[in-house]
Amino acid sequence: MRGDVEWILGNCQVWAIVGLSDNPSRAAHGVARFLQQHGKKIVPVHPSAQTVHGEQGYASLADIPFPVDVVDVFRRSEDAGQFADEAVAIGARAVWFQLGVVDDAAYARTKAAGLRMVMDVCPAIEWRTG
Length: 130
Known about the structure:
- There is one protein chain.
- By secondary structure, the protein is of the alpha/beta class.
- It has 5 helices and 5 strands.
- The chain has helices at 2-11, 27-37, 77-90, 104-112, 123-129, and strands at residues 14-18, 41-45, 70-73, 94-97, 116-118.
- A 5-stranded parallel beta sheet has the order 2-1-3-4-5, with helices on both faces.
């Protein structure tokens, strides 16, 4: 998994962040800002489709009208697998499940589809320790 962490951080520029809203008390808000400050384009994905950190939000991954490199999931483990499957469907290159988000079956499906994937990891932490 370590190799996938480094590859995603080094090669993925467009990050669709599932669960990102304009609520600054949520972890997704801070991680999105961190990624943006490090040159990544963030794409908020939330049912309310809010604009966050100046970026247009979309209600679903399928609504994003341009290619996405990585789908970063800030949802409970029991809900996360559907977003991994949607990442495959939209042609993303990678899936990132945040700290505390684990779904071994989704991991296996995603890897079998040829995508890079990490689980239970925070990109902001990895960036600092990488």
